[in-house]
Design brief:
Helix content: 55-70%
CATH superfamily of the largest domain: Heme oxygenase-like
CATH class of the largest domain: Mainly Alpha
Number of strands: 2
CATH architecture of the largest domain: Up-down Bundle
Distance between the termini: 30 Å
Number of helices: 16
Number of domains: 2
Strand order of the largest sheet: 1-2
């Protein structure tokens, strides 16, 4: 569990995730020791190349996504027992770059982006609102509101904990990469995400209250070994977009789409938890986003995404790519959960393998909704 100090959540370094394949095992061995100042872990780069070559679908490959998640954790709160000097160790960054190239190539091949439009703020905002409104991804939020069992609510929180216990951090990498109108818009959004100066109101801290109310572990990464590769891919995609200046358009587009598809689903998620008897403190996270994201979507569409494109028209394709990637990958995560629940099995990785968390009689699955807004 995380530590509460004066009512404020204090995260400890994440525990080392388990290896999901040969690359993960090599990474685990490598990180067990302090890096040598002039050392070069050649085998780690070779293992990364082998993992990309062996992956039939890099977006859903356990070894690739699990290893990338572990590498990225060094850029956030760190990993318990791992020397912080590994964060910028050249051979680890070289291995990470191999994985990122394979991941980005797969994303660009799989994600359909809207047609090119005029590089003006109003046109960009209009396009993004149209794309997000027309999204026909899986209706996970409607399922949670009307049908989800108590066990399924726990699984939903476990999937969401991978990103939401560090909510806003991946997008904050973009702040120093932007200027002017777009930068001011991003800072305005992120200020709300971080509680406007009040630590107890940070969205990650509010979500942790929901996690604790469900009797789950609120430490970031506590369930990294249980979620499938596609759930890790959702966060890995955000982190990759945010960490690379050349992809600043993609992280802006991602945040715009994220905010534009948040308000209504969070109302439904809150309804689902209320249906199971959770109180206002436990549903605070969802209720907070109903109002906040209705405001954020306007800022994100016009001032953030539109402002960036007006300042740097060449970034328009990446803004649209980032938005489409957000809808596509998060749609895949939702569809995975719904497909598993529709077949009466757990959506969690370890549970699917052993069937040890098969749904109980009181948690019998119901048919999934599909083809409606999330």
């Amino acid at each position: 569990m995380s530590v509460l100090s004066g009512g404020v959540l204090t995260q400890r370094p994440m525990r080392m995730p388990g290896a999901r394949g040969p690359l993960g095992a090599a990474l685990e061995r490598t990180l067990a020791h302090a890096p040598e100042p002039d050392g070069w872990a050649t085998d780690l780069v070779a293992h990364a190349a082998d993992a990309v070559a062996a992956a039939t679908d890099p977006i859903r490959d356990d070894d690739l996504q699990g290893s990338l998640f572990t590498m990225y954790a060094l850029q956030y709160g760190g990993i318990d027992g791992v020397d912080d000097d590994w964060e910028w160790q050249p051979s680890l960054l070289a291995a990470r770059a191999v994985l990122e190239r394979g991941f980005e190539t797969a994303l660009r091949a799989a994600v359909a982006i809207p047609e090119t439009l005029a590089p003006h703020a109003d046109a960009v905002a209009e396009c993004l609102f149209a794309v997000t409104s027309a999204d026909s991804g899986p209706s996970l939020s409607r399922f949670v509101a009307r049908k989800a069992s108590r066990t399924q609510l726990d699984e939903f929180l476990i999937h969401r904990s991978i990103y939401t216990l560090q909510e806003a951090d991946p997008h904050s990498w973009a702040i120093p990469r932007l200027t002017g109108r777009a930068k001011a818009a991003l800072v305005e959004i992120q200020s709300d995400e971080y509680g406007a100066g009040r630590p107890s109101r940070m969205h990650s801290a509010i979500f942790a209250r929901t996690v604790r109310a469900a009797g789950l572990d609120d430490a970031w990464g506590a369930y990294a070994d249980e979620v499938p590769a596609i759930t890790l891919a959702s966060l890995n995609m955000m982190t990759m977009f945010g960490l690379h200046r050349r992809l600043r358009g993609a992280i802006v587009g991602h945040l715009a789409a994220f905010e534009m598809t948040s308000s209504i689903p969070n109302k439904l998620y809150g309804d689902g938890f209320r249906r199971h008897g959770f109180d206002a403190d436990a549903t605070w996270y969802f209720d907070e986003h109903v109002e906040a994201d209705a405001v954020h979507e306007q800022i994100a569409g016009r001032d953030l995404a539109g402002g960036l494109v007006e300042a740097e028209p060449a970034l328009l394709p990446d803004v649209l790519f980032g938005a489409a990637a957000c809808l596509t990958v998060d749609g895949w995560v939702g569809q995975h959960m719904l497909d598993c629940w529709d077949h009466g099995v757990s959506s969690l990785r370890a549970s699917n393998a052993s069937q040890s968390r098969a749904l109980s009689n009181r948690d019998a699955p119901a048919a999934a909704f599909a083809g409606e807004p999330r």
